[in-house]
């Protein structure tokens, strides 16, 4: 049985039909000529100065939060307007893509799981990758595994036609 | 040095990995020399052959069809590509992108991403050169945080993803009407890429 201290098991599960968004932190993740999103957009990262913090989920949010904040002029520039989290004020991004929870899970039903996260921000959602019966992957994913590579490609394709770029980055 | 003519077949296979290392050393030496030249010359001409150093002889042969040059402006460090833009705009676009990615510094994603591997970028260029112009028109090149490089293609009826890590590639080609083609950590062979190109052109573009 997989267990993760990041997941809020007591919260209401994310519904199949929920519209979710994935922020792209770098303009290098989207090619506006071909409308292809980089597979790296859904990869897990190694973070921190010494690269010891291994990301365990791809960070997502509910689209309804985006619409709620849509009247703010800067909603496309700053992550906290999307996540409604003041601590993320500096967390800029270049674009975002939209997808249905169910569609992402269908990409690889044995691996992709989407769960609510623990913490104060109840709009924050995590996309986890099941490794085996006991654990989830931590970043970075082994992209020399063709199943993983195909899954990342399919996830990026899922949002390719929905990309909205931040105005100042266009 | 090893005298190859004195080796029996099995011994030749033992020596091959070390020859691979020698080739990599030569490539790194040339790359370092180019960097030194960039500092002293206002505009440096770098041939496509240097921009996409072939990883094997087969790759080298295929590259002669796209002769154009990449110039680097020493002041701005921006790539200026001269030659076949009109004839093969998509090869041009992909190589321009590779030159740009070669200039990415560490932490390019703001989360501590590594600088991209020269080997991976070179292999990506060689791979792209073996794809036809019409296929490459649906492809993009992306950096990975672990220093690898992706080449992704999105076609009317399928998709291609290849990731280049050091001297090897892993790829998946799939589509509505074809069986899946995939391989893990394989060297770049002209025959493989030509086969992928043939399948894409014949089945996935329209």
Short description:
Chain A is an alpha+beta fold and 170 residues long.
Side by side, the strands of the main sheet of chain B go: 4-5-6-7-8
**Main sheet makeup of chain A:** 6 strands, antiparallel
Low-confidence stretches of chain B: 35-65
- For the CA atoms, what is the radius of gyration of chain A? 15 Å
- Percent of residues of chain A in beta strands? 15-25%
| Helix fraction bin of chain A | 10-25%
Quick check: average pLDDT of chain B? 76
Please tally the helical runs of chain A, counting DSSP H or I stretches of 4 or more residues: 4
Write the layout of secondary structure elements.
The complex is a heterodimer of chains A (170) and B (206).
Chain A: E1 19-24, E2 30-31, E3 36-37, E4 46-47, E5 53-54, E6 58-62, H1 63-68, H2 79-83, E7 95-100, H3 101-107, E8 112-116, E9 124-129, H4 146-160, E10 164-165
Antiparallel strand pairs in A: 1-6, 1-7, 2-3, 4-5, 6-9, 7-10, 8-9
Chain B: H1 9-40, E1 43-47, H2 48-51, H3 57-62, E2 69-73, E3 79-82, H4 89-102, H5 118-130, H6 133-136, E4 139-143, E5 149-155, E6 158-165, E7 168-175, E8 178-186, H7 190-203
Antiparallel strand pairs in B: 1-2, 2-3, 4-5, 5-6, 6-7, 7-8
Helix pairs in contact in B: 4-5
Describe the structure.
The complex is a heterodimer of chains A (170) and B (206). Chain A is of the alpha+beta class and 170 residues long. Chain A has helices at residues 63-68, 79-83, 101-107, 146-160; strands at 19-24, 30-31, 36-37, 46-47, 53-54, 58-62, 95-100, 112-116, 124-129, 164-165. Helices cover 19% and strands 22% of the residues of chain A. In chain A, the strands form three sheets. In chain A, strands 8-9-6-1-7-10 form a six-stranded antiparallel beta sheet. Chain A has a two-stranded antiparallel ribbon with strand order 2-3. In chain A, strands 4-5 form a two-stranded antiparallel ribbon. Chain A starts with 18 loop residues before the first strand and ends in a 5-residue tail after the last strand. Chain B has 206 residues and is an alpha+beta fold. Chain B contains seven helices and eight strands, in the order αβααββαααβββββα. In chain B, a hairpin with a 5-residue loop joins β2 and β3. In chain B, α4 (89-102) runs antiparallel to α5. The longest helix of chain B has 32 residues, at 9-40. Chain B is globular, with a radius of gyration of 18 Å. Chain B starts with 8 loop residues before the first helix and ends with a helix. The A-B interface holds A 25-26, 28-29, 31, 33-36, 38-40, 43, 45-49, 51, 140, 143-146, 149-150, 152-154, 156-157, 160 and B 93, 104, 108-113, 137-140, 142-146, 148, 150, 152-154, 159, 161, 163, 165, 168, 170-172, 174, 182-185.
């Amino acid at each position: 049985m997989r267990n993760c201290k990041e997941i809020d098991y007591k919260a209401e599960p994310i519904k199949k039909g929920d519209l979710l968004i994935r922020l792209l932190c770098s303009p290098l993740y989207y090619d506006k000529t071909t409308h292809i999103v980089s597979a790296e957009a859904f990869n897990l990262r190694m973070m921190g100065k010494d690269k010891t913090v291994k990301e365990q989920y791809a960070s997502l949010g509910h689209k309804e939060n985006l619409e709620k904040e849509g009247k703010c002029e800067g909603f496309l520039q700053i992550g906290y307007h999307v996540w409604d989290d003041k601590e993320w004020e500096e967390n800029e991004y270049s674009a975002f893509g939209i997808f249905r929870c169910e569609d992402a899970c269908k990409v690889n039903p044995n691996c992709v799981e989407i769960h609510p996260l623990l913490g104060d921000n109840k709009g924050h959602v995590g996309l986890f990758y099941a490794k085996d019966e006991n654990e989830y992957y931590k970043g970075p994913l082994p992209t020399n595994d063709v199943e993983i590579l195909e899954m990342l490609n399919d996830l990026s394709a899922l949002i390719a036609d929905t990309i909205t770029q931040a105005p100042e980055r266009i | 040095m090893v005298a190859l003519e004195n080796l029996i077949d099995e011994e030749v296979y033992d020596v091959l990995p070390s020859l691979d290392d020698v080739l990599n050393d030569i490539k790194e030496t040339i790359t370092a020399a180019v960097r030194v030249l960039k500092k002293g010359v206002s505009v440096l001409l770098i041939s496509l052959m240097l921009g996409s150093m072939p990883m094997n002889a087969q790759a080298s042969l295929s590259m002669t069809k796209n002769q154009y040059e990449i110039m680097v402006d020493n002041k701005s460090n921006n790539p200026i590509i001269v030659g076949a833009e009109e004839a093969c705009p998509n090869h041009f676009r992909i190589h321009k992108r590779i030159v740009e990615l070669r200039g990415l510094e560490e932490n390019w994603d703001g989360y501590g991403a590594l600088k991209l591997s020269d080997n991976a970028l070179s292999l990506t260029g060689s791979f792209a050169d073996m794809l036809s112009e019409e296929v490459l028109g649906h492809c993009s090149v992306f950096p990975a945080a672990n220093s690898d490089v992706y080449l992704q293609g999105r076609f009317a009826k399928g998709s291609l993803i290849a990731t280049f890590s050091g001297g090897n590639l892993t790829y998946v080609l799939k589509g509505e009407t074809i069986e899946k083609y995939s391989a893990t950590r394989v060297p770049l062979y002209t025959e493989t890429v030509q086969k992928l190109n043939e399948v894409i052109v014949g089945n996935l573009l329209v």
